[in-house]
Specification:
8-stranded parallel beta barrel; TIM Barrel; globular; alpha/beta
């Protein structure tokens, strides 16, 4: 099992980058930079590429609607170049509130667009002349839709690799099935090991049945909060604001993927309460309503023996990469948590 870290998008990037440098020395395998509607992840990944030498760097995630497929491929190739072949392209759909509300782009056909984006990216990296006649993307643009002067081109540079690994953030059954079919990695969120099979097992099996063997085994990359010790019970509360935001506020009623996931985990009644509170502006109450049980089961927070048991549960559920977020403001404590985590890996 690999260990990585997920960098928050809320600010303090220089401090976070220094933490990655320290954690690279401690032996982490991958650092993932989130984007959402904060600073772009590209500039931060380029900064990390210059500050590190061995750790894999990944986007987590670039929304597919905000860049053309060819630009996604160019960006990934550029980051792979400046990092000497250490980049992983993480993509996802984001959600309609961000895509339409912040970018002014229609949130449509997430499954079809994801498949076509992956196809086009791989054409670019192979240095094929990009010619694609999909339902959602036509490259070059057909004459009747533009000037008629578009021509098939290949990327000028020679990418470091013609197959940059792609991970897809997916939660819904159809998205997860597609990911297991076409991507090198899958990045779910709020992963509850004991519930994973009932929620995603059928979709993963269906996707793997259609998977090209050349892709290799699916890398299941799971984010989790991390604090190891006999006196870290209070750190559960540190995780609740994010859960309250995502379950309660990351989407409208009926279109919140994270609320749906909590419901599928068996927390439907409390998820409804969190959403009701959050959307009515009672955010503090919404955060307080997040149950300790949910936080504890999706996190690695507690004494070393408990964390070892949870790591074993994640491994049993098929997780291959743990993306830990140390729940601390102390860089040295963060390093200690990661070192302790490495010591209990199966």
């Amino acid at each position: 099992m690999r260990i990585g870290v997920m960098l928050d998008y809320s600010g303090g990037f220089h401090e976070a980058a220094d933490r990655v440098v320290a954690l690279e020395t401690a032996g982490i395998d991958v650092a993932v930079v989130a984007e959402a509607y904060s600073y772009d992840a590209v500039s931060q990944l380029g900064y990390l590429a210059a500050k590190t030498s061995a750790v894999e760097l990944a986007s987590g995630v670039f929304p597919i609607y905000t860049r053309t497929p060819s630009l996604l491929a160019m960006t990934a190739a550029g980051l792979d170049f400046v990092s000497d072949g250490r980049f992983r392209l993480g993509i996802g759909t984001s959600g309609p509130q961000v895509v339409e509300g912040f970018h002014g782009v229609a949130f449509d056909a997430p499954l079809g667009r994801t498949r076509e984006v992956v196809d086009i990216c791989r054409q670019v990296w192979r240095r094929d002349r990009v010619t694609y006649h999909g339902k959602h993307y036509q490259v070059p643009l057909p004459p009747e839709r533009g000037t008629g002067l578009g021509k098939a081109l290949h990327i000028i540079n020679h990418p470091v690799r013609e197959r940059i690994p792609i991970s897809i953030a997916a939660l819904g059954p159809k998205n997860v099935e597609l990911t297991a079919e076409i991507a090198e990695g899958w990045q779910p969120v709020f992963f509850y090991p004991e519930k994973a099979q009932s929620v995603w097992g059928e979709a993963l099996d269906a996707g793997r049945a259609k998977r090209d063997p050349s892709l290799g085994p699916l890398d299941v990359m799971v984010g989790t909060s991390l604090a190891i010790g006999d006196d870290v019970e209070d750190r559960l509360a540190w995780v609740k604001p994010q859960l309250g935001l995502y379950i309660g506020g990351m989407g409208a009623k009926g279109r919140n993927f994270y609320h749906n996931l909590a419901t599928r985990y068996g927390f439907g009644e409390v998820a409804n309460r969190i959403q009701e509170l959050y959307l009515s502006g009672r955010k503090t109450e919404a955060i307080a309503a997040v149950p300790d049980e949910l936080v504890r089961q999706i996190s690695l927070i507690g004494p070393r023996g408990f964390v070892a048991e949870r790591v074993a549960a994640f491994a049993e559920a098929g997780v291959t990469t743990l993306l830990a977020t140390p729940v601390t403001t102390d860089r040295f404590e963060a390093v200690r948590y990661v070192e302790d985590l490495k010591a209990v890996l199966p």
